[in-house]
Design goal:
Elements lengths: L3 E4 L2 E3 L11 E4 L2 E3 L12 E3 L2 E3 L12 E8 L17 E5 L17 E3 L17 E3 L59
Parallel strand pairs: 1-3, 2-4, 3-5, 4-6, 5-7, 6-7, 7-8, 8-9, 9-10
């Protein structure tokens, strides 16, 4: 069966759970207020696409390719980005809810996360060097053997990063959230002094 090649299309208010998106390659397409919850997006290719206000929670991403993809205001709970096609993977997130998603062992250098919730996200063994977490809530996020070199956490909050288990060379942090680097050693920090 021949797969679709879709170029320069706009999809708005579509429910791809009721009527699934045709499998194939999507280039320079925009998906606005679309529902992909629990959808099977395996083996799809998205190049230079934008997802705005979409629900992609629990979508299946086996060998899914995201290349130069922007997610804005999307609900993306429980996604397994570690299952994606890693060739040329490149995306950025703005005002997204990524709670309980998994980036285990992904190589996503220079990825930008802006004003997003990343509650209990698994970044173990990932390469996040030069990434930016601007205004992001990282409560319960897992950083274990993660490359965070030159990563910018200056406006991120609620993170807990063990400096002896992660690469942090030249990473940037704010003084007000520095306790997130010390939480694992179980000391008390007086924030009033």
């Amino acid at each position: 069966m021949k797969e679709a090649y879709v170029l320069d299309q706009n999809f708005e208010n579509k429910d791809f759970v009721q009527s699934p998106l045709e499998k194939g390659e999507y280039e320079n397409c925009t998906f606005k207020n679309c529902n992909f919850e629990y959808a099977d997006l395996s083996f799809f290719n998205f190049n230079d696409c934008e997802f705005i206000g979409c629900n992609l929670s629990m979508a299946k991403l086996l060998s899914t390719a995201f290349r130069d993809v922007i997610f804005k205001g999307c609900k993306m709970f429980g996604l397994h980005f570690n299952d994606c096609n890693e060739f040329g993977v490149s995306f950025r997130f703005e005002e997204c809810l990524l709670n309980n998603s998994i980036f285990y062992k992904t190589k996503i250098k220079k990825t930008s996360f802006k004003n997003s919730k990343l509650i209990e996200v698994d970044f173990a063994e990932s390469d996040l060097s030069n990434a930016i977490f601007a205004g992001c809530d990282l409560s319960g996020a897992i950083f274990d053997n993660t490359n965070l070199e030159k990563t910018d956490f200056r406006t991120a909050f609620n993170y807990s990063i063990n400096s002896s288990l992660n690469k942090l060379k030249k990473a940037k942090f704010s003084l007000s959230e520095i306790h997130g680097l010390l939480r694992h050693i179980d000391i008390e920090i007086d924030k009033n002094s």
